[in-house]
User: Fold this.
Amino acid sequence: MSPRVSLFLANLNKYTISKIPTVLRRNIAINQYCWSDFTLLQRAKSFQKVDQRRIANRSAGGSCGKKFA
Assistant:
C-alpha cells in the first residue's frame, strides 16, 4: 500500500471515529481486539501449536478480551 493511500485511510478513520459516540467506539475497540484474537487463533490452528481444547474454548466466543495462558 502506498503511503498516500494509507495516509488517506488514517485520516478517514480519524474522522469517522470522531463522529461515533463513545459507547459505540468502545464496542468497536473490543470487536477489533476479538478479531485480532480470532486471527491469532487461525494462525495457531494452521501451525498446530495450540491444543484442541483451547481452540474449542476460544471459538466458543466466551473468551473475548481474555488471554489464555
In short: The chain has one domain: 3-59. The CA atoms of residues 5 and 11 lie 10 Å apart.
